[in-house]
Amino acid sequence: MNNWVLYAATVLIWGASWYGIKLQLGVVDPAVSVMYRFAAASLILIAWCLLRGVSMRFSPRQHGFAALMGLLMFCLNYVVFYIATGEVTTGFVALSVSLMVILNSLFGSWFLGRPMRPMVVIGGLAGVAGIALVFWSELSGAGGGQATVPGIVLCLIGTVSVSLGNTVSARNQQAGMAVLPTNAVAMAYSALFVALYIAVTGKPVTFDVSPVYVGTLVYLVVFATVIAFGCFLTLLGRIGADRAAYAMVLQPAVALAISTAVEDFQWGWPAALGVALVLAGNVIVLGSARTTATARQAL
């Protein structure tokens, strides 16, 4: 599949998932919803691999890296972000996630020996500034008071966690671990880790049979997890974690479009300028792929 199709699918599906996650909050504890999501997604991927004859055999070392990927990318960051939403505004969450472009570039350089791309860092900074402007009213309204400090710390922990997970995924692909079976195993481990967290913390395991909860769970499992993560991690292996991570910066813009349609989001000049900066950063990050022959082959 063309990289631009993979990129667009990731941005659009994950942009809509923000609203889906919001609709899930209420009856079921967030950690339990995360467990349902990744357990179901893992079963779907395992069934798909078995039906297609894709090998699910991994060495103990490969299982270890799959488990590490599941812990960082599918377990820790999702649980942390769900908790953080109760402490800070969505603006802080979006701003934190937008840092992934820069973090992925740094971690790729430190752990995988990949060269730092200055244009990717510049584009990432433009995206961070754009997200800050889009959510300026929320960010300024939070006031930076003591009550928001735990939430801000949690957001940063979540962003570092998922960025490290991206790096582990890139490493796994470099080592010859195929995306779909690795995702299936990593998601199974993540569901197990979340289940252990639920058991230790004594959270009630409940289920909401309402059409809204079931419908959003199906969307988050099939589209936002099975399909979108498959697209994103395939893209990550092809063009690098730094460029692929810009999908994380663009998805709040999609969420804003949905919010405008269903939640009466009010646009002002900061939000408009912010979206323009995000799009400009996107052009810089993806356009830099043409600066080397290797990147041209990847795209």
Can you offer a commentary on this structure?
The protein has 14 helices and no strands. With 299 residues, it is mostly helical. It has one domain (3-298). The longest helix has 29 residues, at 211-239.
Topology:
Layout: H1 3-24, H2 30-52, H3 60-84, H4 90-98, H5 100-112, H6 118-134, H7 136-142, H8 149-174, H9 179-201, H10 211-239, H11 241-244, H12 246-262, H13 269-287, H14 293-298
Keywords, separated by commas or semicolons:
299 residues; mainly alpha; 14 helices; globular; disordered C terminus
User: How much helical structure, as a percent, in the residues?
Assistant: over 70%
Number of strands: 0
Please describe the biggest sheet, giving its number of strands, its sense, and whether it closes into a barrel.
Answer: none
Order of helices and strands: HHHHHHHHHHHHHH
Instruction: Count the domains.
Output: 1
- The computed structural class is mainly alpha
- Note the overall shape: globular
Q: Could you tell me the mean pLDDT?
A: 82
How many H/I helical runs? 14
Task: Name the poorly predicted regions.
Answer: 142-147, 290-299
Distance between the termini: 11 Å
Tell me the fraction of residues in β-strands, as a range.
under 5%
